[in-house]
Amino acid sequence: MSLLQEEREIILNNEYVDSFDFAEVAEFVTNASKDLFISHHFKNQKKMLVQPRGGFPTYKKQFALYEFFVDANVDVLPLTIDSNTRLNDYATSKKMLRLSEENDVDMLNGYPLVNHGYRTTRKMITHFNKPVSLRHGTPDARLLIETAIASGIFEIEGGPITYLLPYSKNFPLDKAFLYWKYVERVCANYSKLNEPINRESFGPLTATLVPPSITIVIQLLEMLLSLEEGVKSFSVSFAQQGSMNQDIVTGAVLKKLAKHYAAEINCADAAINLVYHQWMGAFPMNKNYAEQLISISTVIASMVGADKIITKTREEASGIPTKEANAKTVANTQYSLGILNGLPNVVDEEEEEILTLEVKAIMEAVFNDPADTLWRKVFNSIKNGVIDVPFSPHIINHNNMITVRDANKNIRIIKRGNVPIPDRCYAYEKSQCNLTKDTTDIVNDIIHDIGIMQ
Amino acid sequence: MKVVTGVVGNDIHVVANRLIDLSLQARGFEVFNLGVNTYLEEFFDAVIETGAEVLLISSLNGEAEGWGREVQLLKAKYKKLDDVIMMIGGNLVVGTGNADDIIPRYKGYGFDIVCHQVDLNTGLDSLEVMIKERQLAVGKN
């Protein structure tokens, strides 16, 4: 028996799992409908796929949410997982699920997939016969991912960096790399049975003034960590940044460099897709304004040429959206996409060149780390600040990079910390900003720059 | 002057914490930032360890109230904390509350400066005023 299989049996031999039948699950994946695989849709569909967010504790409510989404002409269904499950606290999620079922009050902020189990959840997934995307935020997602794939969920979001640095203060990053290596291998192995399982990275990170160079570097590294384990379909992603031009430039550079670095490790055969998140920062309380922001996001996603868009709702500022509001945003986004025709082709060569130089310089510094494997190189690069994510709460993150918006709302680096931004690019970034201000003014600018959409 | 700062409890809201750090540095303080998700013991340990003269606790999700009640009890277990300026700021209650009720309550918990939904620079100005007052008072003695 392989080491991986031994580890799988340990993971699945868990008091919260009702006898995991490896052979039956493999047979299910082998014979599963192609429609359940988002990789199949990416290959064959010519339009941008629309995916909302959403997860309720009970089977009944999740089913009802999916009915609303299907009526609104959804392309990809989401399954958002509750926060106890994300932290592997299955005992609490079990108790809260029971309370939710008995009292008809939602005691969880998502669907506790491990507690529901794959036999139950598979009935719902196969009933709707649409691709489902797993949205979570779990550093140790081994049991969750096994349960998801066994349920018919063939897109797995997350990664060791993007699910850790924005969400955790002190979960050990080296452990996260190893737990995600397991996930990549399991996805790669199942991908041999039918259409590939798609892995998606979480580009928005902290959604707070993260410069595109850092976003792209982390997208590329999580892509490489996934492809080197044998994953054949991967989505890189990023969220609306605040400047249409910067988004278009980011999308272009990300697409180009993803292909470039995949080819460098002999993985040019893997399908690489681009996902765009509607604005992930603070939303306006005014619901009409929120709808305007959402439609502008859709326009930019079209200009960027995204393969999939992930939507927000008009209720974003006030909490977890109702299923009605959530379905409405899907219908509206589909309508916007339908009327966005004859888009101009915008290319900003100077900005693309600067951004490409920045990304390549950081990637080179990561590859030059003396560690023996890629994950250790990445780990060291985060530890020594070569990769620095603004506003990450994690203790390993350096927090020495400072970014502000320029007059056109582009995110610019005014303090690079240990990140090896080339001098020429650094000078360019700073030349776009007013640097005569003192720190108190800059702090006020940052507060303003975070809230630009409110 | 040394300041220990951080966000109390299971609160992971990091943005203001970073901005407090930057602003304190800009005002010439030496900052020991414990980050988000910090327990009271960790704050007091850090004050002893660094010899800080100011402890600035922040909170956004409102759970500071629950922790605030523990301050006197815990502080009594430590020696040498009596002269430390204790400051708390942010959003100090769950839901909505009136600053006129909240401030005396937190002062009762043992805080010298209490800022409920006060602009960052205004809050830090009041810290600097208190530091000056204390220095003058020491001078007179």
Structural features, described:
- The complex is a heterodimer of chains A (454) and B (141).
- With 454 residues, chain A is an alpha/beta fold.
- Chain A has 18 helices and 10 strands.
- Chain A has an 8-stranded parallel β-sheet with strand order 1-8-7-6-5-4-3-2, sandwiched between helices. In chain A, strands 9-10 form a two-stranded antiparallel sheet.
- In chain A, a hairpin with a 5-residue loop joins β9 (402-405) and β10.
- The mean pLDDT of chain A is 96.
- With 141 residues, chain B is α/β, with parallel strands linked by helices.
- Chain B has a single domain, classed as 3-Layer(aba) Sandwich (Rossmann fold), CATH 3.40.50.280.
- Helices cover 48% and strands 18% of the residues of chain B.
- Chain B contains 6 helices and 5 strands; from the N terminus they run βαβαβααβαβα.
- Chain B has helices spanning 15-26, 40-50, 64-68, 71-77, 99-109, 120-140, and strands at residues 2-7, 30-33, 54-59, 85-90, 113-116.
- Chain B has a 5-stranded parallel β-sheet with strand order 2-1-3-4-5, sandwiched between helices.
- In chain B, α5 links the parallel β4 and β5 (113-116).
- The longest helix of chain B has 21 residues, at 120-140.
- At the A-B interface, α18 of A face α1 of B.
